[in-house]
Every structure is written in C-alpha cells, then in structure tokens.
Amino acid sequence: MDIATIVGSIAGLIVILIAIFLGGDFGTFVNIPSLLIVIGGGFSVTVMRFPLANVASALAMGAKIAFTHKKSTPKDKIDNIVELAELIRKDGPLALENAEISDVILKKGSQMVADGYEEEMLVGILERERDLYLERLSEASKIYKQLGDAAPAFGMIGTLVGLVQMLSTMDDPSAIGPSMAVALLTTLYGAILANVIALPISDKLATKSKHEEVNQTLTIDGISHLRANRSPQLIKEMLLAYLPEKERHMAELEMAAG
Asked: Residue 29 to residues 103, 174, 198, 224: CA-CA distances in angstroms?
C-alpha cells in the first residue's frame, strides 16, 4: 500500500473540507450542473483523445498503483536473485520450480530457467513484456495528465456559462445567486479534480514507470545470469551497478567484510 499517496490525497481533501466548514454551509458548495460540466466534460475530451478501452484500463491501473502499490528496491531484487543463484548451485535449476517468489517477472523468468529456455529466447520474451508494461504505464500517465489539463479548462467553461446566465437574468435577483454558484464552483471543482486527483496520479505513474524500468531491467539481467549458471558472488557484483552510488558503496563494504 502506498502510504504517501493515501496520506497526501486525504490531507488535501481534509484541508479543503475544513476551509468549507469554517466558512459556512457545506451544501453551498454542492452544485450538480457544475459537477456535470467539469467531470462530464473532462472525461469526454479524454475519451476523444484516447480509445475508450484504454481510458478505462488506465483509470483502473492509476488507482491501483497510486493507492495499493508496494515499492520494492533494487537491493531487494538483487538479494532475491542471489538467493536463487545459491539455490541453483546447491540443488540445480529444477529447484527453482518450488522456490517461493513474489515478484511476477522474476517468478516467470525463474520458471523459464527451470524449463531450460535458451538465454537469448528467455531475455527476448521478458524484455518484450517489460516494454509493453512500461508502454501501458506511460499511456496511463498521459491519460491522467489529459484529465488534469481538461478539468480546469472545463471549470473555466462553466464559469463563462454561469456568467452568461447571470448577465441574462440581471432583472431577476433570485436567479443571480444560482448562476454565480455555477460560475464559481466549476472553477473550484476543476482545480480539485486536476490538482488533488488527476495530476498527482499522473506523476505517480510516471515515477512508477522509471522505477519499474530499472527494477525489471535488473531482474532480466539477473535471470540471464541465472541461466548462464554464474556464481552468486559474481551475480551480486555485476548487479550492484543498478544501485545508487551510496547504496552500492555500502553493499561493496558488506561483501568485503563477508
């Protein structure tokens, strides 16, 4: 579970709600026409730019990654791969079939090693899966970015609609208030949808894409070493290049001490 996303989104909404309740009645800030303009308009424009099926899958992927994603570090990946290398050295490649592996790509690659896939074929299959997954992440990030860009724009459109309605009913004081509410609340809804939901998730997906590119490339490289039956020590030394400089230095000191 991604605590940062949950805490950040909840904190942002709580701050807005506190400001609303301190300033007056919550019902004043609920306006159905404004919601229809911002949400309906934002999603409509997004669907125009991307296939409907892609939008649906991107929204689901964004919510899942933003709120339930469990981050794994390159060091964790290296440790897991080294453990598998030690298992192979002790019991042979077939021992990988019964190994408990939580990482999906590492599990699939280990099964391929156990099944005797050629290294070139194994790496090709896993690299293609990695590239397709990264492409889906990138498209999901673009879709949320489009939604974040469209929401404030439709907020402004709603503001103009409300102002036109207000100006056309200046002779009726009872109609001025509802028209002004539409004018102002659409801007508020657009800003909330963009800055509290859509754009943060877009950035989260972009960060996830970079993180997964490193992790999955590391994993594929490690599986290739497993297939070549290299020693656990050599595999660890070769994979340390994926670590940030400070972590790599600490890992090298641990290896030297061990």
From this structure: 45, 18, 21, 58
Residue appearing with tokens 């794994």? 72
| Interatomic CA distance for residues 112 and 114, integer angstroms | 5
**Most distant pair of Cα atoms in the chain: their distance:** 89
With beta carbons less than 8 A apart as the criterion, state whether 245 and 135 touch: no
Could you tell me the sign of the dihedral formed by the alpha carbons of 206, 207, 213, 215, in that order? negative
Element (H, E) at 167: helix 119-168
Question: Helices 52-68 and 119-168, interaxial angle, to 10°?
Answer: 100
Residue 206 CA to residue 137 CA, distance in Å, equals: 7
Euclidean distance between CA atoms 141 and 137, whole angstroms:
6
φ/ψ (deg, to 5) at 134: -65, -35
d(CA 152, CA 158): 10
This prediction has a pTM of: 0.81
Per-residue pLDDT tens digits for 165-198: 787 777 777 767 777 777 888 899 999 999 988 9
Work out the burial of residue 19: count CB atoms within 10 Å of its CB; fewer than 13 is exposed, 13-18 middle, 19 or more buried. exposed
- The domain segmentation of the chain, as residue ranges, is 31-75+119-257
What does R_g of the chain's alpha carbons equal in angstroms?
Answer: 26
Q: What is the mean pLDDT of residues 208-236?
A: 92
